[in-house]
Design a protein that fits this description.
Blueprint lengths: L2 E6 L6 H10 L7 E6 L4 H12 L2 E8 L2 E7 L6
Parallel strand pairs: 1-2
Antiparallel strand pairs: 2-4, 3-4
Helix pairs in contact: 1-2
Length: 78
């Protein structure tokens, strides 16, 4: 298991989710992805995407002007 960071600052919907999706596809089951973005909608959008795609949200919240989401990559069918 490894931990990775994704900087999605200054991107507006739907780009933070697309960036998360692209990065998650490169990672292994159990890996941790820490996402930082400035789009306040991402605090809801990324966890919704995780639920649909079988990933676990460890934490999601606003920290000042930034949204920080930590997720664990679930198993994929690939």
């Amino acid at each position: 298991m490894s931990t990775y960071q994704l900087d999605a600052r200054r991107l507006l919907c739907p780009m933070p989710v697309i960036k998360v999706q692209n990065r998650a596809s490169e990672l292994n089951t159990g890996d941790i992805l820490e996402v930082v973005c400035t789009d306040p909608g991402a605090v809801n959008d990324v966890p919704a995407w995780c639920r649909i795609n079988g990933h676990e949200v460890i934490s999601a919240g606003q920290e000042g002007d930034e949204v920080k989401i930590i997720l664990q990559i679930g198993e994929t069918d690939e």
